């Protein structure tokens, strides 16, 4: 009897060994396929100013077809396709979910990269090097991979899920997300929540964003009587401009000190950085050295948090940074307000009064991951167009323990982080798409 048992176990063991190998190699092949698809998307050169949008669109469409998603190619501006995919929910009366990502990337300087920026090289540490690996082709494809897993598990969404792959985010989104959010198609989507991009986190908690700073691109100009370079006199253009620059630098330092001392997060202060200085009288060898010029200009990239006192800042600009009493003037190359039509800061609520926030927190936790404290995004993203239309929009790119390399040389994402992000999105999409509403289907219209 004993002998028979032993031989049976032996036979079983013999049967199980190849099964184990089979299942582990199947899993490996599955992961290889996921990484290959990510690499394929990264290898499409969608760098501004000449992104190959149609190659990206073709790739996304092939993915949509393989997942049996509905799709539309929208071209609000010729040559700039925007792809809208849909996984219909079983209750079309419930507000839907939009997962947004942009297909363009910023340019790269190949000679300064350790691997070519559009090679999607996978190194021996598991890092995938490519422009767009963090910003934000990762997110666009993670959405699709999460849907692939949900479909494989026979999940059926209650709410419809839309995915938008938009052009031109890196140059302001005017021909992409802005036109999209202005369109009738957009209004017809009946959206309840939008997910958009965030930033990598250098610790184990994902960063998450509920608002963003607005760009104010300021040019100040000084004028004054020209004069001999040897003469000391008041009100020269250069002197007037330098006084302003000194004042601006003091303000910059006061804001930066708040961040350095830990009183404010980066997105909560007004940042000011000089973008250009334009002055001097050109000569064949450089500049005329014995002449004080009659005009001088400087440009500043200012980023203003939604809760900042915008009129106080404008007063500071007109009274201290470019006062007419010092022959100065100013203009904005861009001045985006962080306020809505009623003057309220444009922010997405991140407490339990916003069910989408609570669902996100819970879903991330369920996927064994952690969220950091919600932050104001330091720069601009397309999320502002969604928030301006009164929609809750959360900025989130699941990359933990990763250096922040967007727009930098050698942008990379670890493949394990990428795979983990897919699990996290699977959990979020499942929670969002299954959300009935606080009082069941009947009260769905009031839930937001
Ligand atoms: Zn981006």
TrEMBL record:
Zn(2+) 2 binds at residues 135, 170, 407. PROSITE patterns: ARGE_DAPE_CPG2_1, ARGE_DAPE_CPG2_2. Pfam families: M20_dimer, Peptidase_M20. Residues 1-27 form the signal peptide. Binds 2 Zn(2+) ions per subunit. One of its GO terms (molecular function) is metal ion binding. Keywords: Cytoplasm, Hydrolase, Metal-binding, Signal, Zinc. It is found in: Cytoplasm. Residues 210-319 form the Peptidase M20 dimerisation domain. GO terms for cellular component: cytoplasm. SUPFAM superfamilies: Zn-dependent exopeptidases. The active site is at residues 104, 169. Its cofactor is Zn(2+). Belongs to the peptidase M20A family. This is N-acyl-aliphatic-L-amino acid amidohydrolase. It comes from Dillenia turbinata.
